[in-house]
Amino acid sequence: MRRAAVFLDRDGTLNHDPGYLSAAEEFRFLPGAAAAVKRLKDAGYLVFVVSNQSGIARGFFDEKMLRRIHDRMEEGLRRGGAVLDGIYYCPHHPDARCPCRKPKPRQVIGLNVSGLVQLGRSRPKMTTIGVSAAHCAAP
After folding, report:
1. Helix, strand, or coil (residue 28)
2. Whether residue 6 has pLDDT greater than 80
3. Residue 114: which pLDDT band, with cuts at 50, 70 and 90?
4. Tens digits of per-residue pLDDT, 67-109?
5. Any idea where the domains of the chain sit in the sequence?
6. What pLDDT does residue 64 have?
7. What is the DSSP letter of 17?
8. Closest to 59 measured CA to CA, from 15, 92, 89, 27
9. Which residues are catalytically annotated?
10. What's the whole-model pTM score?
11. What is the rounded CA–CA span in Å between residue 117 and residue 46?
């Protein structure tokens, strides 16, 4: 069964954004962010994090460190009673113009193809939340 979904940007939406978050120890939830994810989950939404992580392509951190950062984020959410349905990220440099970089819809389209998310033109069943309108508006 398909369900309505919320796609959250990570940096500046769920956590404090220090620029390029390059160490798990630097991860800090914004006030109320974990509780908001729990409320969304309690309301029946699928909740995904979609994030551009060009710090990997720039050599600021590697995918192993990104996994540690995401593990810390998920651990904090679990302590607050919430579990994400997935984390998707683009590791490429913005100049690469890859199809998985927000706001391009590849990250979201892959979820629709898998049958998890209900996308519709007449009644939208998908919401994106982030600090940048450019990151939330997929063409």
Report:
1. coil
2. yes
3. low
4. 999 999 999 999 999 999 999 899 999 999 888 888 776 655 5
5. 5-44+51-124
6. 97
7. -
8. 92
9. 9, 11
10. 0.81
11. 8
User: What type of residue is 39?
Assistant: R
* Residue 24 in tokens: 């798990």
User: CB of 53 within 8 A of CB of 89?
Assistant: yes
Can you tell me the distance from the alpha carbon of 107 to that of 39, in angstroms, rounded to the nearest whole number?
23
CA distance 130 to 36: 13
Name the architecture of domain 5-44+51-124: 3-Layer(aba) Sandwich (3.40)
Residue type, 6: V
Q: How far is 135 from 119, CA to CA, in rounded Å? A: 18
Question: For residues 134 and 108, what is the distance between their CA atoms, to the nearest angstrom?
Answer: 15
Single-letter amino acid code for the residue at 13: T
Instruction: Specify the higher pLDDT residue, 107 or 15.
Output: 15
